[in-house]
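This protein record is not my work; I was only asked to verify it. Would you go through it and say whether the fold makes sense for this chain? Here is the record exactly as it was handed to me.
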Amino acid sequence: MIGTAILVSKTRNTWRDIISIEPETEKRHRRTLRNGTIIALLFFTAAALIGAGIGKNRDEAIQLSTDLEQMKTIGSRISKARNLVEASIPSYTRMYKSIGEDVDDLEATFESLKTELAIYDTKFPAQHQTTTDSIASVEQGLKRMALVKKQIALMKTIETLSSDDQITTWRTSMMPLLEQEDALNGK
């Protein structure tokens, strides 16, 4: 704002100097004023556009960083809960109930990251291979969350069954889901 006021003041003073030193026709003075105004407007427009672009890129970078941190935090909570589970159906039931919201949040974070990384890839083509690897990891995370959501839903069914039926359903339905998840890791 102060810079604009100084620029306007300097422009006015320069214009007065032009008129007093070189008393030309009115047509030439108007043309000079018009050209100076156009140049000033172009300068301010370019500055505004560049500033907006920098601001947008900064906002996108902050969002990407925030989502990556959120992915790490939520993923750690889910992993910790899953690693602490005991080898019993009641323990698995408690674990799956405890991670349900985190799984939904992590899935939403993966979806956001997938979009943000695609935008990042277009803006920074020199990082294409790294970004492509990151997108592949995010897609693998989405597949994993889909399987974990199936496990959670199945666990709700298993917990309503009798003891013998729980074990049978665990073996015939839950084990294949767990094996599919392990296959994502190449185990």
Q: What stands out?
A: The CA atoms of residues 151 and 178 lie 8 Å apart. The first helix runs from residue 2 to 21. The mean pLDDT is 81. Residues 56-184 form one domain.
